[in-house]
């Protein structure tokens, strides 16, 4: 694999961002297969995605340049603000003006936001995307219809010595998404699918430390879990293609794809673990006493239990645990006639994120008027959960409440055992 590193003075005269980046690391391109180059960028300092998802390790926007002996294609671009870095990297390989096609696997701006600038420089280039993608390219980026090429399942595009094949892969992560496959090189470009929000100076998954799989799972939970059914169909297509390399548009590139394919198999349709996630808030200790009793009951009945106090927990860690948990238990005090706001937020995510373990229980406490438990139960049922037990008590738990809490925990453990 060829790694090309530009000299520091290539940044002179660049934006302040480039100057800052230059101090951290050199600009590099990486040849991941003959004449197929990673020209993406690392966003080390980004800390939130979609105004929701924490990015403790930043993220990367992977773009790939495919140089055929007749035509040149750029697969995906970069987040707005990084266009100049992208163009500078491309220029290390070919003049950007020579790009013939910009393949837009996905219209979300972290990948497609650089399209207007690339089309401005590569003024003969056309955007290649699905029917809905072409529509979104116009909507979001003002790409005129005459500068688009619409593709559908199985269509191919010849670059001369390279052939691109397109696969419909809707809802991974938006409805317009597709995969691109470099046929001769067996390189799959699935954009968000198989991605991870993990910035590293190492491009390949086998060079990155053991943090990758947990981060890939957290990414899956946040981005793909609501669309697991579509992920299953896409996985079957991926396995039929038999790629040698999977090159997503976030995080490391897999030159041995089998482990991440197997992980996605497990996460989308594999057996669930004998594991229960307990999420709760307690204001004055009553709900927490119930939580400790329930947690203990689950554990002593032979089931793994993972408690999360929402005042200190990271919701993305909770979602990651829920990828393969069999049940969830939610605890809340009643606040202003309903659930605690942190529980409301968590319940909404849990009810709407396509969690496969659909067994639940709800518990809580109140001082003068309850009702929170019923509201959480209703929202979970709307999300398709079977709520097998509830417990709501007034004031600090008495011995009979502890007994009921223990029974609730045992019931959950027995149901999934
Ligand atoms: Fe990485 Fe759905 O954008």
Short summary:
The chain is α/β, with parallel strands linked by helices.
Measured as a percent range, the helix fraction is 25-40%
CATH H-level homologous superfamily name of the largest domain? Ribonuclease Z/Hydroxyacylglutathione hydrolase-like
Q: What distance separates the N and C termini?
A: 49 Å
Give the spatial strand order of the biggest sheet: 1-2-3-8-9-10-11-12
Question: Measured on Cα atoms, how large is the radius of gyration?
Answer: 24 Å
Bound molecules: MU-OXO-diiron
C-alpha geometry: elongated
Mean model confidence by pLDDT = 94
Can you count the helices?
Answer: 13
Largest sheet: 8 strands, mixed
Strand content: 15-25%
At CATH level 2, the architecture of the largest domain is 4-Layer Sandwich
CATH class of the largest domain: Alpha Beta
Low-confidence parts: 6-26
CATH topology of the largest domain: Metallo-beta-lactamase, Chain A
Protein structure class: alpha/beta
Number of strands: 23
How many domain units? 2
Task: Show the helix and strand layout.
Elements: E1 2-5, H1 16-24, E2 28-33, E3 36-38, E4 41-43, E5 48-49, E6 53-54, E7 59-61, E8 64-67, E9 72-75, H2 83-91, E10 101-103, H3 109-112, H4 115-121, E11 126-129, H5 131-141, E12 148-150, E13 156-158, E14 163-168, E15 178-182, E16 187-189, H6 212-224, H7 228-241, E17 245-246, H8 258-269, E18 275-280, H9 286-300, E19 304-309, H10 315-322, E20 327-335, E21 338-339, H11 341-352, E22 359-366, H12 372-382, E23 386-394, H13 399-416
Parallel strand pairs: 9-10, 10-11, 11-12, 16-17, 18-19, 18-20, 20-22, 22-23
Antiparallel strand pairs: 1-2, 2-3, 3-8, 4-7, 5-6, 8-9, 13-14, 14-15, 15-16, 20-21
Helix pairs in contact: 6-10, 7-8, 9-13, 11-12
The structure holds MU-OXO-diiron.
The site of MU-OXO-diiron (FEO) has 7 residues, from α3.
